[in-house]
What we know:
Its main location: secreted. By secondary structure, the protein is mainly α. The protein is 38% helix and 5% strand.
Amino acid sequence: MGSTSPLTRHEREEELGQMKWSGWGRRSAWLMRGKLVPASSPAPTSSRSQPGTPSRCPVARRGSCPWAAETSTLPGPRASFEQLKQAFHARGLSTKDLAVLSGGHTLGFAHCSSFQDRIHPAAGDDKAQQDPSLSPSFAASLRRACPANNTARAAGSGLDATSAAFDNTYYRMLQGGRGLLASDEALLTHPKTRAWVALYAASQEAFFRAFAKSMLRMGGLNGGDEV
């Protein structure tokens, strides 16, 4: 009692590793050690990788990514929370999976077109302004990388500050107003996913465990019943 977190005690204990080491844990240890192999598609970019869909496959399912054929139908980088939730639920994945697998955006790169409207007012719209959810200093750095008159097709930004390392920087940046895509920011608009963001920002180990489990769910390896 007294806690305002939307996460239950059981959920927090599970994420913080206070439950017994299970058969699932042993089977997915290779995932938690970072042994992920590239999907048949290239590394994540805004044009190929959609929010919440990491471009990696479990080794045990080499050559078969359950999402590889579906990326064209997933919500884009401007998707709202409801659009993201519906897309995940339609694939048998939970709202928690949405928060966890969005952490796959700790890897990769997005082109300017994926977030240009967050940093530059629309031409001819006097009322348009920078996305207020963005940190002013972060928005300024994005404008330097992607000026309004940008013509460089390769210009853009890493999805987080350590875009070549698999870690929890994505969640920490999101909490600080430095989420790159509007669909990343959408995780903070619902109390449940906002609580998961806070948990994974605070505990990288909790994120690693949850990501391994959600990857197995997505790959159909564990037959889990969590919804």
